[in-house]
Design brief:
Blueprint (H helix, E strand, L loop, with lengths): L2 H4 L2 E8 L5 H11 L5 E8 L5 H13 L2 E5 L4 H14 L3 E3 L2 H11 L15 H15 L14 E6 L4 H9 L5 E6 L16 E6 L2 H14 L11 H18 L3 E3 L5 H14 L6 E2 L1
Parallel strand pairs: 1-2, 1-3, 3-4, 5-6, 5-7, 7-8, 8-9
Length: about 280
């Protein structure tokens, strides 16, 4: 094992935002993920909207020197932060400026100076909240009588990331429900009657599924041997699920090597592109 693989480089990363900080945090993590063995020690300063709050952040930055990233909109606060970082000899980056400037030139439009405008309580916001409530109320086969209100219905055997994928889709404003496939139980007739919803079958390799299920049982302090983790039984579950998807003509997404975000992105692509019902997303 090389020294590069044994040791990681730690550095302080100060994230200053005049809103919730979600955008800045996501950008910072995406950038840091591009570097191997580099781990940021993150310091968050959200809803910074006064000189007093900003001075407190600068005090913390001075105590833990490192990179500073911000999404401050107000000109006076930006100047205060940037001047403070110059005084402390700290690199200070306005994370959104290059994108905003490029888009402004392309559109020929002026910028808004309203703080937190992306989090306004508009129709889109309430649609996302409605989608989230729907996903929670239609998790694991609940609320089956309202499946016709769904944009997407995910179908799959236990532990194929149906619930977290539905929650993720809800944050994108997609009304997503999920229906579990239980050995020995029939598939709800309602699924065959849906006209609006995109029904997507989730599949996974038996080996990976057994690993996930065993970890789940360990977290519950359950160690009895059951068909839930038996190789032959699990393989049969997966095979029967795939046969069901083929009979119904549902698109299939293999979640074996996918994160929840990647699975959700694949579902969004199916919604957007209206791929043929037999499409397989590897």
């Amino acid at each position: 094992m090389t020294s590069a693989s044994r040791f990681a480089t730690f550095f302080h990363l100060h994230l200053v935002s005049d809103s919730t900080g979600e955008t800045l945090n996501a950008m910072a993590r995406a950038v840091c993920a591009r570097f191997e063995n580099v781990l940021p020690i993150e310091h968050y300063y959200a809803l910074v909207r006064s000189p007093r709050q900003l001075e407190r952040a600068l005090s913390d930055i001075e105590a833990a020197p490192g990179m500073v990233m911000h999404t401050i909109v107000d000109d006076s606060l930006r100047t205060l932060l940037e001047d403070g970082c110059r005084r402390l000899d700290m690199p200070c980056i306005a994370a959104l400026d290059p994108l905003v400037s490029a888009l402004s030139r392309y559109l020929g439009a002026s910028l808004t100076r309203r703080v937190g405008v992306q989090h306004a309580l508009d129709t889109d916001y309430f649609n996302r909240m409605d989608a989230l409530n729907y996903a929670i109320g239609h998790d694991d086969g609940q609320g089956g009588q309202e499946l016709d209100q769904a944009d997407v219905v995910l179908v799959g055997v236990s532990r194929t990331s149906k619930t977290p994928t539905c929650i993720y889709l809800a944050h994108r404003g997609i009304r997503a429900a999920n229906v579990p496939l239980v050995p020995g139980a029939s598939v709800p007739e309602k699924l065959g009657q849906l006209e609006k919803a995109l029904i997507v079958g989730l599949t996974i390799s038996p080996d990976r599924l057994i690993q996930i299920r065993r970890n789940r049982l360990l977290s519950l302090r359950e160690n009895r041997d059951t068909s839930y983790t038996d190789m032959e039984a699990v393989r049969e579950e997966v095979v029967q699920a795939r046969r069901l998807y083929e009979r119904q003509g549902w698109p299939v997404i293999d979640v074996t090597r996918r994160s929840v975000e990647e699975t959700a992105a694949a579902v969004l692509n199916l919604l957007q592109d209206k791929r043929p019902a037999t499409a397989i997303v590897p």
